[in-house]
Design a protein that fits this description.
0% strand, mainly alpha, 65 residues, 3 helices
């Protein structure tokens, strides 16, 4: 698998970042029931997409920090 080769080529352990990424993804799914952008955009509607997507970006950024 390419990602495994890339991980090994840098000589670092990717377990912690992988666990943290999985936790963040899980929290996102708990809140929004999807990680599929088109599904979210359809849910927000044409007029609400920009504002709602911006809110999500802010929330996830705060979670990462």
């Amino acid at each position: 698998m390419l990602t495994t080769k890339l991980k090994r080529s840098f000589g670092k352990n990717w377990d912690v970042p992988a666990i943290l990424g999985a936790e963040l993804r899980g929290k996102f799914i708990d809140i929004y029931q999807t990680t599929h952008c088109k599904t979210l955009r359809n849910r927000f509607g044409e007029e609400g997409q920009a504002e709602e997507c911006s809110k999500i970006v802010c929330k996830v950024t705060i979670e990462l920090l």
